[in-house]
Automatic annotation (TrEMBL):
GO molecular function: DNA-binding transcription factor activity; transcription cis-regulatory region binding
Feature: DNA-binding region: 40-59
Sequence intervals crossing the membrane: none
Keyword DNA-binding: yes
Organism: Mycobacterium decipiens
InterPro entries found in the cross-reference section: Homeodomain-like_sf, HTH-type_TetR-like_transc_reg, HTH_TetR
The protein's name in its UniProt record: TetR family transcriptional regulator
Length: 197
């Protein structure tokens, strides 16, 4: 009987993950339609079809929910970016392709783009600057460009996050302008010493 009880709950962890994802999906729908800073836990619970108590069981606060959403989307974007740069051998091209793909994917996703609208509070920039997950993924991307001192890679990763955040909040004239800025001001600094031309 005890073995049967244990077996009946083998999906418990998966149910928790599915429930949390369902809540984050509901939050994403709200972020698409409205300013993310204005959305409260009541609205997210209603959109998810659950009670506030249930919502708080999965996310202790609005900040925790926002962080979970940003981290989920960061990981998803990170996987897509790595697919886009797979096969790009030249370090400079890999860096430009990775950054421009990031900008394009965030801008093309209404829920993510809302976090960086210049007419709204800068919560996207705040989240990007505080997120260890975003910095870690940026550092992993930079390490893929070539070997370098770990402390240097981490500083450069934080710098790349700031550059991307800046371009999301204050875009260049067009993609060509942004690419030129990246080539002139970012590539010379962020490229590992072993790959500099």
């Amino acid at each position: 009987m005890a073995g049967r009880a244990r077996n009946q709950d083998w999906l418990a962890a998966r149910r928790t993950e599915v429930a949390a994802d369902h809540i984050l999906d509901a939050a994403e729908r709200l972020y698409t339609d409205r300013d993310p800073a204005s959305i409260g836990m009541n609205e997210i619970a209603t959109a998810a079809g659950c009670s506030r108590a249930t919502l708080y069981r999965y996310f202790e606060s609005r900040d925790a929910l926002r962080t979970a959403y940003v981290h989920r989307e960061t990981r998803r974007l990170g996987r897509e970016i790595m697919r886009k740069i797979d096969g790009v051998e030249d370090t400079h091209d890999r860096l430009i392709t990775g950054i421009t793909a990031t900008l394009r994917m965030v801008r093309d996703n209404p829920a993510l783009a809302a976090w960086f609208a210049s007419t709204r509070p800068p919560i996207g920039g705040e989240m990007a600057g505080q997120s260890a997950v975003i910095t870690a993924l940026a550092a992993a991307f930079l390490r893929s460009l070539g070997p370098d001192d770990p402390a240097t890679v981490e500083r450069r990763a934080r710098w790349v996050v700031r550059v991307i955040t800046s371009l999301l909040m204050f875009p260049g004239h067009d993609e060509t302008d942004e690419r030129a800025m990246l080539e002139e001001f970012v590539i010379p600094i962020v490229t590992p010493a072993s790959a500099r031309r």
